[in-house]
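Appendix B, Record 12. Input sequence as logged:
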Amino acid sequence: MRKIINSINERLYRETKRLMMHWGFGETCSSIYALLFISEKSITAEEIADELGYAYSSMINELNKLRREGVITRERKGRKYAYAAIKSVDSILLKEKQKTLSILKMMSEQMKKHRDMLEEKAWESVERSIDIIKGGFENERKE
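Logged structural output:
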């Protein structure tokens, strides 16, 4: 098999992996997604394992996690499955934005109940964060 990660696309691979890890994906899932993201075609679990140096059984488990997250697809190619990245990073970002917003709203509700025991700055910071996510970064406070 020819190497998918080469000197031309290695930086894109590393930055894609870094982004996925920032969004909470583990090392292996991030590596797999980054490889599929830079790949020009769908590839099998064996090819992924060979390229990344992971065990085949680990690949299957991690590929299933990525499929459940909705960031990769699987199609049958002959007797094997081939995997491809859904190259829509914005959809992953939107999902992460919704998760973060949900957590911040729960924090805000709990903070409102105990506002007399908390610093005003803490509550304001959570509320400002909610505003930033809802309205985009143009609402971010300039310091």
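The chain has two domains: 10-86, 90-137.
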